Amino acid sequence: MQSALVLLALLLLPLSASSALPTATSVVAGLNELARAAGKLYFGTATDNTTPEFTDPTYMGILENYNQFGQLTPANAMKWMYIEPEPGVFNFTLGNQIADLAEEYGMVLRGHNGVWYEELPSWVTSTDWNATGLAYAVQRHVSGIVGQYAGRVYAWDVVNEPLNDNGTYREDLFYNALNTTYINIALEAARAADPNVKLYINEYNIEYVGTKSTAMQNLIKQLQSEGVPLSGVGMESHFIVGEVPTTLVENFEAYAALGLEFAITELDIRMELPATEELYEQQKQDYYTVVNACMQVSACVGVTVWDWTDKYSWVPGTFPGYGDACPWDANYTRTPAYDGIAIAFEGQSISA
Ligand code: G3I
């Protein structure tokens, strides 16, 4: 009798918070399948072979599904510290692994990135550069990486995050030695190395109307007036649940009016933990809002999440107390965010 009562009590125990959270429900189709059907080039993801991802068979089994992901971005493998660790000495091993994976599964490859103030090798950060020397180093670097993957990469984030949030130029070592000409040098070197690749500037907090976006548009106009090659802008889109901007479409249309394409390049929408059903439902709405904005502007060529599972997201390590930013949770279960993305690609409306 007692064991039956114990069993009954156990059955009545509240489920743990995580098992009570909602999961994706309404969608069977893959996200890249839906993106392509909607006329976009891809739905894709960053992936990182500088971490254990590539030794995780469950992760790889889902990553390699073209119906889910039609595009890959190396989160780190093609950054300066990994790909040119010594002056003029290139190591393409990690980059090739991701390029080869994309090729094997017919996925679009984005190159990331050419010139950025972070993840630089010590020979770049420790040198007291003069303009001539750094101009040469930038030209050699960008030529080397873009040339290596010529014909295999759809678009390069040639210049990454050149602006401050107040619209001024980031005073990194490139700007300090070359002013804004490092941007010209990098874009022209990339074009010389691959005549067909799309050349992007990639940035965050330019996804919405504001000072930084205006500054980016002014930079673009300046480059266009100088005849510097530029194809597109990467809208990183690192957002917070409940705080997704309301001026995405208006802002996107301003870039389209400049004759550029653009892409959502690093989408994740983090929440303050612990996750709740309400936060998950808001996140679903937020993912819908961003992808729907891309759907509203034809110059938006595709959407990339900045890795697809919470298990390997950069967010918890960078934003303490925040996480659950991805469309799959850390157990590889699709969250309602997945439905939000899918419903947007399907062109359906979402019940608020
Ligand atoms: O490779 C080393 C490894 O040898 C070492 O053992 C380990 C522990 O110290 O660190 C490893 O380097 C880490 C690297 O990722 C590769 O895993 C760095 O510490 C870590 O800081 C670095 O973080 C990356 C971050 O950029 C750097 O700012 C993230 O993975 C990457 O997702 C993130 O991506 C950036 C985009 O490139 C640009 N937009 C913003 C986005 C998020 O910051």
Give structural notes.
The protein has 352 residues and is of the alpha/beta class. The protein has one domain (4-345): TIM Barrel (Alpha-Beta Barrel), CATH 3.20.20. 41% of the residues lie in helices and 16% in strands. It contains 15 helices and ten strands. It has helices at 2-12, 17-20, 31-37, 57-63, 80-83, 93-104, 122-125, 131-148, 173-178, 181-193, 211-225, 248-256, 277-296, 315-318, 336-345, and strands spanning 42-47, 71-74, 108-115, 155-160, 198-203, 232-235, 238-240, 261-272, 300-305, 322-323. An eight-stranded parallel β-barrel has the order 1-2-3-4-5-6-8-9, surrounded by six helices. Strand 5, helix 11 and strand 6 form a beta-alpha-beta unit. The longest helix has 20 residues, at 277-296. The radius of gyration is 21 Å and the shape is globular. The model is unreliable at 10-18 (pLDDT under 50). Bound molecules: ligand G3I. Ligand G3I binds at residues 48, 50-51, 75-76, 118-119, 160, 236, 266, 314.
